[in-house]
Amino acid sequence: MKNIPISAAIGLFLTAMYFVGAIFAPLLAPYGMAEVVGDVWEPSSSEYLLGTDNIGRDLLSRMIYGGRTTIFVATMATILSFTTGSILGFLAAVLGGWADQVMSRTVDLIMSIPSLITALVVLAMVPVTIPVLILVMGFLDATRVYRLARAVAVDINVMDYVEAAKLRGEGRAWVIFREILPNALSPLVAELGLRFIFMVLFISTLSFLGLGVQPPLADWGGIVKENKDGIVYGIGAALYPAVAIATLAISVNLVADWVLNRTTSLKGGRG
Amino acid sequence: MHPIVKLVSQRFALGLLLLFGASAMIFGLTEALPGDAAQAVLGQSATPESLANLREEMGLDRPALTRYFEWLGGILQGDLGQSLTNKLDIAESIGNRLGNTLFLAFWAAIVSVPLAIFLGLLAVRYRNRWPDKLISAVTLTTISIPEFLIGYVLVYFVAVKLGMFSPLAMINDSMSLGQKLNAIALPVIVLTMVVLAHMMRMTRAAILNVMQSAYIETAELKGLTNFTIIYRHALPNAIAPIVNVVMLNLAYLVVGVVVVEVVFVYPGMGQYLVDHVTKRDVPVVLACGVIFAAIYIGLNMLADIVAILANPRLRHPK
């Protein structure tokens, strides 16, 4: 942890800021989330730092509460996709045989359709609520985690220490959680950052299409949807989420890159 | 049989199988989830009797498997069914829109593919120096912003502040090609930026991968210049991965189109799909879902086939 490069430090700091902002949103936001405080699309002033939105709510408060919703949904979906994806992936690698075949071919099938399209088909059938969104996004993304986890676990599964554990009679749960998991952790952690960013982009896109977080709850994609009509009049209210999403995504990417570099620098090779 | 023919036909058969599986999965999803077309028409407050009547009228009371094969057979004959909301024939409504979507994707591809390969080569040539770092910083930023926001940022700065191009991409049949291109300029730029980043990064990685081989080191030791090495030795060996990258990104483009069309109110498939998801118009969603899946699977299959064809080791079997 001592020789942390400057880019990773900045990324870590900004990421932490976003999470702190999300957790303490009610304390930080100057106004209530759905409180109409001023005129429509007021420019930024000392009273409303970012101005007001399409129905006169304080935009800074909307952005802070929006970040809370977006980050919460993305985090929950990432946790879901990682637990299901990695456990199933490890299980497939340990079990092998037809269980592996069935799971892997099912994942191939799910991944043969773009996840946005599958999500749209599902959301056409069920009511759009936050738990539904987390489930849909989490399970669709679990396919990618599954592939990575399985690939890593297949390599680990043939190591001597795993063989030793099996020979001394440890059960499958021990092999998965005590032998494979600790050794597969670094590539999975690097992937975790990328999946989280993907979730943020995914939920923002769904909300923008009107199929994600429903009003009056704020979220970054929804803020764009609400304020997009102002753009043709030169009102940039809809662009603040772009700044928020981009800085969050870049900072998480910087951290993930650093983690990935730390793990790959162990391998030798030219370049 | 020649190994190439065998591999290609295997991959083709796998593609067809996947397509069949995907259609079954999309149909199965709408079956397995609570709610159906009858519920969507009548709403949550419908009485059980009226629901049962409508289901019988729409044929929804028959087994799912029968309806699936009827639906699949219909698609194969170009009959996509009827929309629930406006009772129009779906195939007719989609025909024109699919053309528009492909038109948009085509121009985005024409611009982005050569640009991505050029930038990828440039980044490798000046690896770890400022052109490489600049390109990678810019592409990292465009990857980190969702498509629709890139769209609005461009509309705000280019269309509104600079007054260039139209913020809405309305096209119709009476426009000339030039007018159409002017109308779709902004969406094409957005799509280009989105896929360019992925394509350029993957191209760079593919060439760098080749650059680490022993024969490149030999070429370096022979004293060849950097560009000669890249052009003569690295590029021919990197063509297969690059073509693969291009195909995968074209597949990605087809999905990116969905969101970008909504931003620019472009009369294409994506907007049609999103509209009808909001209206819970199940037959339209099914039809659009299958078409998008088919394009995506088709391009992925093409990517694999090109990779097989481009592999010199398979062209000369021992």
From TrEMBL, chain A:
PROSITE patterns: ABC_TM1. Keywords: Cell membrane, Membrane, Transmembrane, Transmembrane helix, Transport. Coiled coil: none annotated. The chain crosses the membrane at residues 6-29, 71-96, 116-140, 192-211, 231-260. It is a multi-pass membrane protein. PANTHER family: OLIGOPEPTIDE TRANSPORT SYSTEM PERMEASE PROTEIN APPC, PEPTIDE ABC TRANSPORTER PERMEASE PROTEIN. This is Peptide/nickel transport system permease protein. It comes from Ruegeria marina.
Automatic annotation (TrEMBL), chain B:
One of its GO terms (biological process) is transmembrane transport. The keyword Nucleotide-binding does not apply. It comes from the Bacteria. The keyword Signal does not apply. It is a multi-pass membrane protein. The chain crosses the membrane at residues 12-30, 102-122, 134-159, 179-197, 242-264, 284-310. SUPFAM superfamilies: MetI-like (SSF161098). Residues 98-303 form the ABC transmembrane type-1 domain. It holds the Pfam family BPD_transp_1. InterPro entries: BPD_transp_1_N, MetI-like, MetI-like_sf. It is found in: Cell membrane. GO terms for cellular component: plasma membrane. Keywords: Cell membrane, Membrane, Transmembrane, Transmembrane helix, Transport. Belongs to the binding-protein-dependent transport system permease family. This is Peptide/nickel transport system permease protein. It comes from Ruegeria marina.
